[in-house]
Amino acid sequence: MSEKWRPRLGLVVLVILMTVMVLPFVGLFFFRLYENQLIRQTEAELIAQGAAIAAIYAREVRDADIPREKLGAMPAPAAGSSVDERYHPIEPRLDLAIDPVLPRRPDSVPAAVDPVFVAIGARLTGILTDTQTITLAGFRLLDPSGVVIAGSGETGKSLAGIEEVRTALTGTYASALRTRVLDSPVPPIYSVSRGTRVRVFAAIPVIVGDRVAGVVYASRTPNNIVKHLYSERGKVILAALTILGVTLSIAFVFIRTISRPIYELIDRTARISAGDRNAIGPLHHHGTREMAELSNAFLDMAHKLQARSDTIRTFATHVSHELKSPLTAIQGAAELLRDAGDEMGQEKRVRFYSNIIADTDRLNRLVRRLIELARAESMHLTGETTSLGEVVEMLVPDRRIPVEIDAGADIRFRMSAENAAIILSNLADNSARHGATRFTLNAVAGPEVVTLTASDDGKGISPGNKGRIFEPFFTTRRESGGTGLGLGIAAALVRGHDGTIELQGTTAGACFAIRLPAA
Prior knowledge:
Layout: H1 9-30, H2 33-63, E1 101-102, E2 109-110, H3 115-135, E3 138-142, E4 148-150, E5 157-158, H4 163-168, E6 174-179, E7 198-208, E8 211-220, H5 225-231, H6 233-273, H7 289-340, H8 346-377, E9 385-387, H9 388-394, E10 403-407, E11 412-414, H10 417-433, E12 439-445, E13 449-456, H11 486-496, E14 500-504, E15 511-517
Parallel strand pairs: 1-6, 10-12
Antiparallel strand pairs: 2-5, 3-4, 3-8, 6-7, 7-8, 9-11, 12-13, 13-15, 14-15
Helix pairs in contact: 1-6, 2-3, 7-8, 8-11, 9-10, 10-11
Protein backbone atom coordinates (compact mmCIF):
# COMPACT_ATOMS: atom_id res chain seq x y z
CA MET A 1 0.00 0.00 0.00
CA SER A 2 1.48 3.33 -1.09
CA GLU A 3 2.08 5.96 1.56
CA LYS A 4 -0.29 8.92 1.50
CA TRP A 5 1.40 12.03 0.17
CA ARG A 6 1.90 14.77 2.70
CA PRO A 7 3.74 18.04 2.11
CA ARG A 8 7.03 18.60 3.88
CA LEU A 9 7.33 21.34 6.46
CA GLY A 10 9.74 23.29 4.27
CA LEU A 11 7.32 23.24 1.34
CA VAL A 12 4.44 24.51 3.51
CA VAL A 13 6.60 27.34 4.87
CA LEU A 14 7.80 28.25 1.36
CA VAL A 15 4.23 28.46 0.03
CA ILE A 16 3.13 30.60 2.99
CA LEU A 17 6.06 32.99 2.63
CA MET A 18 5.63 33.33 -1.14
CA THR A 19 1.93 34.03 -0.65
CA VAL A 20 2.67 36.73 1.92
CA MET A 21 5.31 38.24 -0.36
CA VAL A 22 2.98 38.65 -3.37
CA LEU A 23 -0.06 39.80 -1.40
CA PRO A 24 0.74 43.54 -1.84
CA PHE A 25 0.89 43.13 -5.62
CA VAL A 26 -2.27 41.02 -5.64
CA GLY A 27 -4.03 43.82 -3.81
CA LEU A 28 -2.82 46.37 -6.33
CA PHE A 29 -3.85 44.52 -9.47
CA PHE A 30 -6.89 42.47 -8.46
CA PHE A 31 -8.65 44.55 -5.86
CA ARG A 32 -8.24 47.77 -7.87
CA LEU A 33 -7.64 49.75 -4.71
CA TYR A 34 -4.83 51.90 -6.04
CA GLU A 35 -6.25 52.06 -9.55
CA ASN A 36 -9.61 53.25 -8.23
CA GLN A 37 -7.81 55.93 -6.25
CA LEU A 38 -6.30 57.21 -9.49
CA ILE A 39 -9.83 57.45 -10.97
CA ARG A 40 -11.04 59.43 -7.95
CA GLN A 41 -8.00 61.70 -8.14
CA THR A 42 -8.67 62.43 -11.82
CA GLU A 43 -12.33 63.22 -11.15
CA ALA A 44 -11.38 65.54 -8.28
CA GLU A 45 -8.96 67.41 -10.55
CA LEU A 46 -11.64 67.79 -13.24
CA ILE A 47 -14.12 69.11 -10.66
CA ALA A 48 -11.61 71.71 -9.43
CA GLN A 49 -10.63 72.85 -12.92
CA GLY A 50 -14.23 72.82 -14.15
CA ALA A 51 -15.44 74.82 -11.14
CA ALA A 52 -12.87 77.53 -11.85
CA ILE A 53 -13.84 77.72 -15.53
CA ALA A 54 -17.53 77.66 -14.58
CA ALA A 55 -17.00 80.68 -12.34
CA ILE A 56 -15.39 82.58 -15.24
CA TYR A 57 -18.20 81.45 -17.56
CA ALA A 58 -20.86 82.65 -15.06
CA ARG A 59 -19.17 86.07 -14.80
CA GLU A 60 -19.17 86.43 -18.59
CA VAL A 61 -22.90 85.57 -18.68
CA ARG A 62 -23.69 88.16 -16.00
CA ASP A 63 -21.58 90.81 -17.76
CA ALA A 64 -23.41 90.12 -21.05
CA ASP A 65 -26.70 90.81 -19.27
CA ILE A 66 -28.45 87.89 -20.98
CA PRO A 67 -32.21 87.77 -20.33
CA ARG A 68 -33.46 85.06 -17.95
CA GLU A 69 -35.66 83.50 -20.64
CA LYS A 70 -32.53 82.60 -22.66
CA LEU A 71 -31.08 80.69 -19.72
CA GLY A 72 -31.89 77.11 -18.85
CA ALA A 73 -34.00 75.40 -16.22
CA MET A 74 -34.08 76.23 -12.56
CA PRO A 75 -31.84 73.72 -10.73
CA ALA A 76 -33.47 71.47 -8.15
CA PRO A 77 -32.23 72.08 -4.58
CA ALA A 78 -29.72 69.49 -3.33
CA ALA A 79 -31.08 67.01 -0.80
CA GLY A 80 -30.62 68.22 2.77
CA SER A 81 -29.37 71.65 1.73
CA SER A 82 -30.86 75.11 2.28
CA VAL A 83 -30.83 78.28 0.15
CA ASP A 84 -28.64 79.98 2.78
CA GLU A 85 -25.68 77.67 2.39
CA ARG A 86 -22.51 79.37 1.24
CA TYR A 87 -20.68 76.25 0.13
CA HIS A 88 -21.75 73.56 -2.29
CA PRO A 89 -18.85 71.07 -2.43
CA ILE A 90 -18.82 68.41 -5.11
CA GLU A 91 -17.16 65.15 -4.02
CA PRO A 92 -15.68 62.57 -6.44
CA ARG A 93 -18.10 59.68 -6.77
CA LEU A 94 -16.79 57.38 -9.50
CA ASP A 95 -15.83 53.84 -8.51
CA LEU A 96 -14.01 51.63 -10.99
CA ALA A 97 -15.18 48.49 -9.21
CA ILE A 98 -18.89 49.45 -9.17
CA ASP A 99 -19.73 52.00 -11.87
CA PRO A 100 -20.17 50.62 -15.40
CA VAL A 101 -17.83 51.70 -18.14
CA LEU A 102 -20.11 53.27 -20.79
CA PRO A 103 -19.39 53.14 -24.51
CA ARG A 104 -17.26 55.85 -26.08
CA ARG A 105 -18.75 59.32 -26.03
CA PRO A 106 -21.42 59.82 -28.76
CA ASP A 107 -20.52 62.20 -31.57
CA SER A 108 -21.92 65.74 -31.45
CA VAL A 109 -24.69 66.71 -33.86
CA PRO A 110 -25.23 70.03 -35.72
CA ALA A 111 -27.46 72.55 -33.93
CA ALA A 112 -28.42 76.24 -33.88
CA VAL A 113 -26.44 78.41 -31.48
CA ASP A 114 -27.16 81.82 -29.96
CA PRO A 115 -24.63 84.44 -31.15
CA VAL A 116 -24.42 85.87 -27.61
CA PHE A 117 -23.12 82.59 -26.25
CA VAL A 118 -20.84 82.15 -29.31
CA ALA A 119 -19.23 85.47 -28.40
CA ILE A 120 -18.74 84.34 -24.79
CA GLY A 121 -17.20 81.08 -26.01
CA ALA A 122 -14.79 82.95 -28.27
CA ARG A 123 -13.58 85.06 -25.35
CA LEU A 124 -13.01 81.94 -23.18
CA THR A 125 -11.34 79.78 -25.84
CA GLY A 126 -7.88 81.06 -24.95
CA ILE A 127 -8.41 80.20 -21.28
CA LEU A 128 -9.48 76.65 -22.21
CA THR A 129 -6.45 76.20 -24.48
CA ASP A 130 -3.99 77.43 -21.85
CA THR A 131 -5.60 75.27 -19.16
CA GLN A 132 -5.52 72.16 -21.37
CA THR A 133 -1.83 72.76 -22.11
CA ILE A 134 -1.02 72.46 -18.41
CA THR A 135 -3.60 69.93 -17.16
CA LEU A 136 -3.91 67.72 -20.30
CA ALA A 137 -7.69 67.74 -19.79
CA GLY A 138 -10.23 68.33 -22.57
CA PHE A 139 -12.86 71.04 -22.08
CA ARG A 140 -16.13 71.89 -23.84
CA LEU A 141 -18.27 74.92 -22.90
CA LEU A 142 -21.97 74.32 -23.55
CA ASP A 143 -24.79 76.84 -23.65
CA PRO A 144 -28.12 76.25 -21.81
CA SER A 145 -29.26 74.03 -24.74
CA GLY A 146 -26.21 71.81 -24.69
CA VAL A 147 -24.58 73.31 -27.80
CA VAL A 148 -20.78 73.66 -27.80
CA ILE A 149 -19.69 77.30 -27.76
CA ALA A 150 -16.00 76.66 -27.12
CA GLY A 151 -14.06 73.47 -27.68
CA SER A 152 -11.74 71.94 -30.20
CA GLY A 153 -13.49 71.20 -33.49
CA GLU A 154 -17.04 70.91 -32.11
CA THR A 155 -18.20 74.53 -31.81
CA GLY A 156 -21.79 74.89 -32.97
CA LYS A 157 -22.63 71.20 -32.42
CA SER A 158 -24.90 69.77 -29.72
CA LEU A 159 -23.91 67.32 -26.96
CA ALA A 160 -27.29 67.50 -25.24
CA GLY A 161 -28.00 63.85 -25.95
CA ILE A 162 -25.16 62.62 -23.75
CA GLU A 163 -26.39 61.28 -20.40
CA GLU A 164 -24.08 63.24 -18.09
CA VAL A 165 -24.62 66.47 -20.08
CA ARG A 166 -28.37 66.02 -19.91
CA THR A 167 -28.14 65.66 -16.11
CA ALA A 168 -25.91 68.75 -15.77
CA LEU A 169 -28.38 70.87 -17.82
CA THR A 170 -30.88 70.28 -15.00
CA GLY A 171 -28.43 71.83 -12.52
CA THR A 172 -26.98 68.58 -11.07
CA TYR A 173 -23.33 67.54 -11.29
CA ALA A 174 -22.78 64.30 -13.22
CA SER A 175 -19.76 62.14 -14.07
CA ALA A 176 -19.18 58.96 -16.03
CA LEU A 177 -16.56 56.43 -17.06
CA ARG A 178 -16.45 55.87 -20.80
CA THR A 179 -14.39 53.71 -23.12
CA ARG A 180 -11.34 55.58 -24.24
CA VAL A 181 -10.69 56.33 -27.90
CA LEU A 182 -7.11 55.11 -28.39
CA ASP A 183 -4.82 57.03 -30.71
CA SER A 184 -2.26 54.19 -30.70
CA PRO A 185 -2.11 50.57 -29.47
CA VAL A 186 -1.69 50.08 -25.74
CA PRO A 187 1.70 48.61 -24.74
CA PRO A 188 1.27 44.90 -23.79
CA ILE A 189 2.26 45.37 -20.14
CA TYR A 190 -0.37 48.11 -19.74
CA SER A 191 -3.14 45.65 -20.61
CA VAL A 192 -3.19 44.40 -17.00
CA SER A 193 -4.62 47.80 -15.97
CA ARG A 194 -8.26 48.46 -16.58
CA GLY A 195 -7.63 52.18 -16.09
CA THR A 196 -5.78 52.48 -19.41
CA ARG A 197 -9.01 51.82 -21.37
CA VAL A 198 -11.30 54.38 -19.72
CA ARG A 199 -11.69 58.16 -19.71
CA VAL A 200 -13.29 60.21 -16.95
CA PHE A 201 -16.01 62.68 -17.98
CA ALA A 202 -17.34 65.37 -15.63
CA ALA A 203 -20.21 67.75 -16.39
CA ILE A 204 -20.32 70.79 -14.05
CA PRO A 205 -23.42 73.02 -14.35
CA VAL A 206 -22.89 76.81 -14.56
CA ILE A 207 -25.42 78.51 -12.29
CA VAL A 208 -26.28 82.20 -12.70
CA GLY A 209 -28.82 83.38 -10.19
CA ASP A 210 -31.41 80.64 -10.09
CA ARG A 211 -30.91 79.41 -13.65
CA VAL A 212 -28.58 77.04 -15.51
CA ALA A 213 -26.48 79.22 -17.83
CA GLY A 214 -24.49 76.35 -19.35
CA VAL A 215 -22.23 73.38 -18.67
CA VAL A 216 -18.47 72.89 -18.39
CA TYR A 217 -17.89 69.45 -19.91
CA ALA A 218 -14.38 68.19 -18.98
CA SER A 219 -12.65 64.88 -19.62
CA ARG A 220 -9.29 63.26 -19.02
CA THR A 221 -7.66 59.86 -19.14
CA PRO A 222 -6.51 58.83 -15.63
CA ASN A 223 -2.97 57.77 -14.98
CA ASN A 224 -2.76 53.93 -15.12
CA ILE A 225 -1.23 51.91 -12.34
CA VAL A 226 1.61 50.41 -14.39
CA LYS A 227 2.70 53.78 -15.71
CA HIS A 228 2.47 55.29 -12.24
CA LEU A 229 4.47 52.46 -10.69
CA TYR A 230 7.05 52.83 -13.44
CA SER A 231 7.40 56.49 -12.62
CA GLU A 232 7.97 55.45 -9.00
CA ARG A 233 10.14 52.50 -9.96
CA GLY A 234 12.90 53.41 -7.51
CA LYS A 235 10.54 53.26 -4.55
CA VAL A 236 8.79 50.17 -5.94
CA ILE A 237 12.11 48.33 -6.32
CA LEU A 238 13.14 49.37 -2.81
CA ALA A 239 9.80 48.15 -1.43
CA ALA A 240 10.11 44.85 -3.32
CA LEU A 241 13.65 44.33 -2.03
CA THR A 242 12.49 45.14 1.49
CA ILE A 243 9.64 42.62 1.24
CA LEU A 244 12.04 40.02 -0.17
CA GLY A 245 14.56 40.69 2.58
CA VAL A 246 11.94 40.47 5.33
CA THR A 247 10.58 37.24 3.81
CA LEU A 248 14.04 35.68 3.65
CA SER A 249 14.70 36.77 7.24
CA ILE A 250 11.46 35.14 8.36
CA ALA A 251 12.42 31.97 6.46
CA PHE A 252 15.87 31.94 8.07
CA VAL A 253 14.43 32.41 11.56
CA PHE A 254 11.83 29.68 10.94
CA ILE A 255 14.46 27.24 9.67
CA ARG A 256 16.76 27.97 12.62
CA THR A 257 14.08 27.84 15.31
CA ILE A 258 11.65 25.16 14.06
CA SER A 259 12.69 23.20 10.97
CA ARG A 260 16.29 22.47 11.99
CA PRO A 261 15.45 21.16 15.51
CA ILE A 262 12.58 19.06 14.12
CA TYR A 263 14.79 17.41 11.50
CA GLU A 264 17.53 16.80 14.10
CA LEU A 265 14.96 15.26 16.44
CA ILE A 266 13.74 12.99 13.61
CA ASP A 267 17.34 11.91 12.99
CA ARG A 268 17.87 11.24 16.70
CA THR A 269 14.71 9.14 16.78
CA ALA A 270 15.92 7.00 13.90
CA ARG A 271 19.34 6.54 15.51
CA ILE A 272 17.87 5.65 18.92
CA SER A 273 15.51 3.09 17.36
CA ALA A 274 18.58 1.58 15.65
CA GLY A 275 20.24 1.14 19.05
CA ASP A 276 22.67 4.08 18.97
CA ARG A 277 23.09 5.06 22.63
CA ASN A 278 25.16 8.12 21.69
CA ALA A 279 22.02 9.66 20.12
CA ILE A 280 20.46 10.10 23.57
CA GLY A 281 21.74 13.57 24.33
CA PRO A 282 20.79 17.27 24.06
CA LEU A 283 20.15 18.68 20.59
CA HIS A 284 22.78 20.98 19.11
CA HIS A 285 20.20 23.74 18.57
CA HIS A 286 16.81 23.93 20.25
CA GLY A 287 15.43 27.07 18.60
CA THR A 288 12.37 27.93 20.66
CA ARG A 289 11.46 27.16 24.25
CA GLU A 290 8.70 24.80 23.11
CA MET A 291 11.16 22.87 20.92
CA ALA A 292 13.57 22.67 23.85
CA GLU A 293 10.81 21.32 26.09
CA LEU A 294 9.75 18.84 23.40
CA SER A 295 13.29 17.59 22.80
CA ASN A 296 14.03 17.37 26.53
CA ALA A 297 10.80 15.45 27.13
CA PHE A 298 11.59 13.11 24.23
CA LEU A 299 15.17 12.50 25.34
CA ASP A 300 14.04 12.01 28.93
CA MET A 301 11.57 9.41 27.69
CA ALA A 302 14.34 7.77 25.65
CA HIS A 303 16.60 7.70 28.73
CA LYS A 304 13.86 6.08 30.80
CA LEU A 305 13.00 3.56 28.11
CA GLN A 306 16.68 2.71 27.69
CA ALA A 307 17.11 2.36 31.45
CA ARG A 308 13.99 0.24 31.68
CA SER A 309 15.23 -1.94 28.83
CA ASP A 310 18.56 -2.38 30.61
CA THR A 311 16.75 -3.12 33.86
CA ILE A 312 14.52 -5.72 32.22
CA ARG A 313 17.54 -7.34 30.58
CA THR A 314 19.46 -7.42 33.87
CA PHE A 315 16.35 -8.43 35.78
CA ALA A 316 15.70 -11.35 33.45
CA THR A 317 19.30 -12.48 33.78
CA HIS A 318 19.19 -12.35 37.58
CA VAL A 319 15.79 -13.99 37.85
CA SER A 320 16.81 -16.85 35.57
CA HIS A 321 19.98 -17.31 37.63
CA GLU A 322 18.14 -17.14 40.96
CA LEU A 323 15.52 -19.64 39.80
CA LYS A 324 17.99 -21.95 38.11
CA SER A 325 19.95 -22.92 41.23
CA PRO A 326 17.04 -24.14 43.43
CA LEU A 327 15.27 -25.73 40.44
CA THR A 328 18.43 -27.62 39.55
CA ALA A 329 18.81 -28.77 43.16
CA ILE A 330 15.14 -29.86 43.35
CA GLN A 331 15.42 -31.73 40.05
CA GLY A 332 18.66 -33.49 41.14
CA ALA A 333 17.22 -34.56 44.50
CA ALA A 334 14.01 -35.80 42.86
CA GLU A 335 15.96 -37.83 40.30
CA LEU A 336 18.11 -39.41 43.02
CA LEU A 337 15.04 -40.34 45.02
CA ARG A 338 13.44 -41.83 41.94
CA ASP A 339 16.48 -43.79 40.79
CA ALA A 340 17.56 -45.07 44.24
CA GLY A 341 14.17 -46.50 45.08
CA ASP A 342 14.10 -48.63 48.25
CA GLU A 343 17.91 -48.96 48.30
CA MET A 344 18.31 -45.42 49.73
CA GLY A 345 18.41 -45.25 53.49
CA GLN A 346 15.80 -43.40 55.49
CA GLU A 347 18.26 -40.83 56.78
CA LYS A 348 19.52 -39.94 53.31
CA ARG A 349 15.97 -39.87 51.94
CA VAL A 350 14.92 -37.41 54.69
CA ARG A 351 17.92 -35.19 53.89
CA PHE A 352 16.95 -35.04 50.20
CA TYR A 353 13.32 -34.26 51.11
CA SER A 354 14.52 -31.49 53.41
CA ASN A 355 16.67 -30.03 50.60
CA ILE A 356 13.66 -30.05 48.24
CA ILE A 357 11.49 -28.30 50.85
CA ALA A 358 14.21 -25.71 51.57
CA ASP A 359 14.69 -24.93 47.87
CA THR A 360 10.90 -24.72 47.43
CA ASP A 361 10.72 -22.25 50.31
CA ARG A 362 13.50 -20.24 48.66
CA LEU A 363 11.53 -20.16 45.40
CA ASN A 364 8.37 -19.07 47.20
CA ARG A 365 10.23 -16.33 49.02
CA LEU A 366 11.84 -15.18 45.79
CA VAL A 367 8.49 -15.07 43.98
CA ARG A 368 6.91 -13.09 46.83
CA ARG A 369 9.78 -10.62 46.76
CA LEU A 370 9.47 -10.23 43.01
CA ILE A 371 5.76 -9.48 43.39
CA GLU A 372 6.54 -6.91 46.11
CA LEU A 373 9.19 -5.29 43.88
CA ALA A 374 6.77 -5.09 40.93
CA ARG A 375 4.14 -3.47 43.15
CA ALA A 376 6.68 -1.02 44.56
CA GLU A 377 7.85 0.08 41.08
CA SER A 378 4.27 0.66 39.91
CA MET A 379 3.27 2.53 43.07
CA HIS A 380 1.05 5.62 42.66
CA LEU A 381 0.70 8.44 45.17
CA THR A 382 -2.46 8.19 47.28
CA GLY A 383 -2.20 11.36 49.35
CA GLU A 384 -2.15 9.41 52.64
CA THR A 385 0.06 10.53 55.52
CA THR A 386 1.54 8.73 58.51
CA SER A 387 4.16 9.04 61.27
CA LEU A 388 6.91 6.84 62.70
CA GLY A 389 4.78 6.10 65.75
CA GLU A 390 1.96 4.69 63.62
CA VAL A 391 4.36 2.69 61.44
CA VAL A 392 6.21 1.03 64.32
CA GLU A 393 2.87 -0.13 65.78
CA MET A 394 2.19 -1.99 62.51
CA LEU A 395 5.48 -3.92 62.51
CA VAL A 396 5.09 -7.62 63.37
CA PRO A 397 5.64 -8.28 67.08
CA ASP A 398 7.97 -11.24 66.47
CA ARG A 399 10.50 -9.17 64.53
CA ARG A 400 14.10 -10.34 64.73
CA ILE A 401 15.45 -7.00 65.97
CA PRO A 402 13.93 -4.41 68.34
CA VAL A 403 12.88 -1.12 66.73
CA GLU A 404 13.13 2.10 68.73
CA ILE A 405 12.22 5.74 67.99
CA ASP A 406 14.68 8.36 69.21
CA ALA A 407 12.78 11.50 68.18
CA GLY A 408 10.05 12.75 65.86
CA ALA A 409 7.52 9.96 66.47
CA ASP A 410 4.60 12.31 65.73
CA ILE A 411 6.03 14.09 62.65
CA ARG A 412 3.85 13.25 59.66
CA PHE A 413 5.00 12.65 56.09
CA ARG A 414 3.30 11.72 52.82
CA MET A 415 3.14 7.95 52.63
CA SER A 416 0.68 5.32 53.71
CA ALA A 417 1.50 3.50 56.97
CA GLU A 418 1.45 0.17 55.11
CA ASN A 419 4.13 1.22 52.58
CA ALA A 420 6.25 2.83 55.29
CA ALA A 421 6.05 -0.40 57.28
CA ILE A 422 7.29 -2.39 54.26
CA ILE A 423 10.30 -0.05 53.90
CA LEU A 424 11.24 -0.16 57.57
CA SER A 425 10.71 -3.94 57.75
CA ASN A 426 13.13 -4.49 54.87
CA LEU A 427 15.69 -2.16 56.45
CA ALA A 428 15.31 -3.87 59.84
CA ASP A 429 15.58 -7.34 58.26
CA ASN A 430 18.75 -6.25 56.43
CA SER A 431 20.21 -4.95 59.72
CA ALA A 432 19.40 -8.21 61.50
CA ARG A 433 21.09 -10.25 58.74
CA HIS A 434 24.25 -8.18 59.30
CA GLY A 435 24.41 -8.86 63.04
CA ALA A 436 22.65 -5.75 64.42
CA THR A 437 20.97 -5.93 67.83
CA ARG A 438 19.39 -2.47 67.79
CA PHE A 439 17.46 -0.58 65.06
CA THR A 440 16.85 3.11 65.79
CA LEU A 441 14.57 5.55 63.95
CA ASN A 442 14.58 9.34 63.94
CA ALA A 443 12.47 12.02 62.11
CA VAL A 444 13.32 15.69 61.48
CA ALA A 445 10.77 18.05 59.86
CA GLY A 446 11.80 20.63 57.28
CA PRO A 447 9.75 23.24 55.35
CA GLU A 448 8.78 20.79 52.61
CA VAL A 449 10.68 17.57 53.37
CA VAL A 450 10.76 15.20 56.32
CA THR A 451 14.07 13.36 56.81
CA LEU A 452 13.88 9.90 58.37
CA THR A 453 17.05 8.18 59.56
CA ALA A 454 17.30 4.46 60.25
CA SER A 455 20.54 3.30 61.95
CA ASP A 456 21.77 0.06 63.50
CA ASP A 457 24.77 -1.27 65.43
CA GLY A 458 25.61 -4.10 63.04
CA LYS A 459 28.72 -4.88 61.03
CA GLY A 460 28.02 -2.14 58.55
CA ILE A 461 28.54 -2.26 54.78
CA SER A 462 31.93 -2.63 53.18
CA PRO A 463 33.13 0.27 50.96
CA GLY A 464 33.14 -1.97 47.89
CA ASN A 465 29.45 -2.84 48.31
CA LYS A 466 28.08 0.62 49.14
CA GLY A 467 27.36 1.51 45.52
CA ARG A 468 25.42 -1.70 44.81
CA ILE A 469 23.20 -2.22 47.84
CA PHE A 470 20.06 -0.96 46.08
CA GLU A 471 20.60 -3.14 42.99
CA PRO A 472 18.02 -5.97 42.72
CA PHE A 473 19.43 -9.44 43.55
CA PHE A 474 22.64 -8.07 45.06
CA THR A 475 23.22 -9.79 48.41
CA THR A 476 26.11 -11.06 50.51
CA ARG A 477 23.84 -13.44 52.50
CA ARG A 478 22.54 -15.70 49.76
CA GLU A 479 23.52 -18.83 51.70
CA SER A 480 21.35 -17.70 54.61
CA GLY A 481 18.29 -17.12 52.45
CA GLY A 482 18.88 -13.56 51.28
CA THR A 483 17.27 -12.66 47.94
CA GLY A 484 18.90 -9.25 47.40
CA LEU A 485 15.50 -7.64 46.84
CA GLY A 486 14.73 -6.07 50.22
CA LEU A 487 16.63 -2.80 49.73
CA GLY A 488 15.51 -2.66 46.09
CA ILE A 489 11.88 -2.83 47.21
CA ALA A 490 12.49 -0.10 49.80
CA ALA A 491 14.18 2.17 47.23
CA ALA A 492 11.36 1.62 44.68
CA LEU A 493 8.70 2.55 47.25
CA VAL A 494 10.59 5.71 48.25
CA ARG A 495 10.99 6.79 44.60
CA GLY A 496 7.29 6.12 43.99
CA HIS A 497 6.49 8.69 46.71
CA ASP A 498 8.79 11.41 45.26
CA GLY A 499 11.44 10.72 47.85
CA THR A 500 15.07 9.65 48.05
CA ILE A 501 17.02 7.10 50.07
CA GLU A 502 20.78 6.97 50.53
CA LEU A 503 23.38 5.32 52.70
CA GLN A 504 25.02 7.71 55.17
CA GLY A 505 28.62 7.47 56.22
CA THR A 506 29.03 6.22 59.84
CA THR A 507 31.86 4.92 62.03
CA ALA A 508 29.85 1.87 63.16
CA GLY A 509 26.86 0.01 61.76
CA ALA A 510 24.76 1.34 58.90
CA CYS A 511 22.63 4.48 58.62
CA PHE A 512 20.03 5.21 55.92
CA ALA A 513 18.57 8.69 55.27
CA ILE A 514 15.08 8.75 53.73
CA ARG A 515 13.66 12.07 52.53
CA LEU A 516 9.91 12.26 51.89
CA PRO A 517 7.49 15.15 51.20
CA ALA A 518 6.11 16.68 54.36
CA ALA A 519 2.40 16.26 55.12
